[in-house]
Amino acid sequence: MGLKKRYLKTKPVGKVTFQLPREVASTARMVHIVGEFNDWNPQATPMKKMRDGTFSITLDLEKGREYRYRYLIDEATWENDWNADKYEPSPFGVEDSVVVV
């Protein structure tokens, strides 16, 4: 589980699959991924609930960049990615997950 990255040879893009494990979101009705890649819009990027209870989404992100992000569960609870490439402090007194593409 965790981040999966696949790089395209024809474009400067990485296909990054984000997964929130069922242990974190066992009772979640919906999960959105929110970060720099969608201007921190909490409604822009809903994740799909898989049969095994995990939530997953694959995004095309520009290579050579780092993106801060977090998961928003049921529009109420923020969660970091347990498998992020690293973590950085945010201006809100918590840490953001970071993916390096």
Fold and architecture overview:
It is a single chain. With 101 residues, the protein is mainly β. The protein has one domain: Sandwich (Immunoglobulin-like). It has strands spanning 4-7, 13-20, 31-35, 48-49, 55-62, 66-73, 77-79, 86-89, 95-100. The strands form 2 sheets. Strands 3, 6, 7, 8 and 9 form a 5-stranded antiparallel beta sheet that branches. Strands 1-2-5-4 form a 4-stranded antiparallel beta sheet, with no helix packed on it. It is globular and about 40 Å long.
Proportion of residues in extended strands? over 45%
The top-level CATH class is Mainly Beta
From N to C, what is the helix and strand string?
A: EEEEEEEEE
**CATH homologous superfamily label:** Immunoglobulins
CATH architecture level-2 label: Sandwich
Largest sheet: 5 strands, antiparallel
What fraction, in percent, of the residue positions are helical? under 10%
**Rg, Cα atoms, Å:** 13 Å
CATH fold-level assignment: Immunoglobulin-like
Low-pLDDT segments, ≥5 res: none
Give the tags.
single chain; 101 residues; mainly beta; Immunoglobulin-like; four-stranded antiparallel sheet; 9 strands; 48% strand; globular
In short:
By secondary structure, this protein is an all-beta fold. The protein is built from no helices and nine strands.
Can you lay out the helices and strands and say which pair or pack?
Blueprint: E1 4-7, E2 13-20, E3 31-35, E4 48-49, E5 55-62, E6 66-73, E7 77-79, E8 86-89, E9 95-100
Antiparallel strand pairs: 1-2, 2-5, 3-6, 4-5, 6-7, 6-9, 8-9
